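Hi everyone,

Forwarding the result from last night's run.
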Amino acid sequence: MLYEYSLSAQREDFYNITPQTREAVAKSGVSSGVVVVFCPHTTAGITINENADPDVVCDLLIGLDKAFPDRTDFRHGEGNSAAHLKSSAMGSSVTVIIEGGKLLLGTWQGIYFTEFDPPRKRKFYVKVVSDK
């Protein structure tokens, strides 16, 4: 089953989309399988990271800015090459195991939509696949 969700990304940030992913799994009725969360954008991504301490997201954004600074020698005409680099580092999808109708995430893990070229109206897809 495929589910589409929308997101209004007002700033560069990590947006917790774990609730939408759990909702898709619940709606699907799948008790055992996998879920794939996919981002169809080139300046945004999907990742799994800690969702307990908001300072982790702050630190990730600081680290990404340091690792991928905007540079005057970038050639891409839109001026958002740093956003493309960050989204490539994050990746466009994650896969999570479903068991007992629940996501098998670690205690501190959450699924994030990562925005690097705001403000944007975005979408992401959640595909739930049964192993039966």
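The helical segments are 18-28, 54-67, 81-90.

Cheers,
N.
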